[in-house]
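A reminder from the course coordinator: this example appears on the midterm review sheet, so study it carefully.

Given structure:
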């Protein structure tokens, strides 16, 4: 069996394992000895993940696991890897510093290093450190060599050849200085936006609700700002997203909502709200939790120039017939394996170190 086929077979097994947990109300364990070893352990880690991070609700964990179980199937994996020639050469050691804003947010970086055959030193965020080690252990039962290839650390990183690091703008500046003598991918803050024409269907706007609220808006692919035509009527938008109103029942979300609302009122900012989302006119891209920034436009050509000028700060553009790389409403949280963060091809980078 060639290298790619072996990789795909191993990752398909992992996808099948993950798929058992994509719906907590309908858990269906596979009855095999190897599965039994890890099934209860992963259930326990899911419980700990929820208890450790108030943003990691059952719904969000299951959503993330469902997406990965779909991607770790033969066809998506074959499509992804068909783009690359992966030589069987001596591995380098890659240090991967992961974020923790949404469940398994660093999993794609892990997969990229895995398929390119490199050794890994993984430093996880304290906000998302419970799931990946079990998934790696599951892979190890089929490939014993992985035990010497992958190491999780909490301390300072040593003895590596390249770095993939994800963090805030402040930590990115530190990473760029600290790792300046190594090949790096260093990711900063990015946000996603939506362009509203006023002609959207109810289904489009319902999809936009997913783009805004999934993962409580904490992901770089979450829409944090919308551009709307001047004199846009927000009632249609509010009606379409109303199904998300239970989000206010999450204590952490409600606390952020109340705090930001108090700040806006004391500062005498004009806001539009519906009890679970505040709209604030603002030129910035990154809106606080419970808030969606908006900005008016008068001319689409002028808007395109504005968007192009801030493109390094944008992860996704949600629109209809506005941008050649646009994403359809409701699809920001459904990336495929070739949708690389910051449009930097991680596999290509790792093949060249």
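Designed residues:
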């Amino acid at each position: 069996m060639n290298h790619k086929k072996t990789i795909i077979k191993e990752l398909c097994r992992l996808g099948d394992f993950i798929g058992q947990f994509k719906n907590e109300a309908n858990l269906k364990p596979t009855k095999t000895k190897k599965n039994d070893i890890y099934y209860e352990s992963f259930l326990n880690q899911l419980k700990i993940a929820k208890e450790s991070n108030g943003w990691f609700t059952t719904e969000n964990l299951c959503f993330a696991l469902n997406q990965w179980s779909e991607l770790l199937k033969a066809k998506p994996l074959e499509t992804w890897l068909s783009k690359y020639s992966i030589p069987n050469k001596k591995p380098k050691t890659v240090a991967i510093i992961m974020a923790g804003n949404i469940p398994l947010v660093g999993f794609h970086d892990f997969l990229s290093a895995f398929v390119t055959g490199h050794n890994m030193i993984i430093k996880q965020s304290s906000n998302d450190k419970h799931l990946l080690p079990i998934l790696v252990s599951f892979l190890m039962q089929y490939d014993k060599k992985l035990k010497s290839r992958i190491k999780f650390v909490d301390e300072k990183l040593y003895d590596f050849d390249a770095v993939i690091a994800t963090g805030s703008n402040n930590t990115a500046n530190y990473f760029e200085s600290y790792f300046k003598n190594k090949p790096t991918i260093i990711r900063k803050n990015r946000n996603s936006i939506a362009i509203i024409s006023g002609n959207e269907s109810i289904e489009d706007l319902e999809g936009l609700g997913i783009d805004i609220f999934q993962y409580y808006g904490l992901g770089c692919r979450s829409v944090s700002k919308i551009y709307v035509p001047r004199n846009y009527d927000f009632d249609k938008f509010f009606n379409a997203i109303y199904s998300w109103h239970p989000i206010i029942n999450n204590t952490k979300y409600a606390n952020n909502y109340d705090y930001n609302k108090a700040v806006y009122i004391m500062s005498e900012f004009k806001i539009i709200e519906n009890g679970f989302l505040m709209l604030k006119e603002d030129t910035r891209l990154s809106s606080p939790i419970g808030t969606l920034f908006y900005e008016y436009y008068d001319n689409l050509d002028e808007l395109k120039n504005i968007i192009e000028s801030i493109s390094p700060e944008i992860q996704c553009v949600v629109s209809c017939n506005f941008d050649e790389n646009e994403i359809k409403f409701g699809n920001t949280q459904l990336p495929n394996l070739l949708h690389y963060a910051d449009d930097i091809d991680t596999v290509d980078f790792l093949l060249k170190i």
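The first strand starts at residue 93 and ends at 97. The two ends are 26 Å apart (CA to CA).
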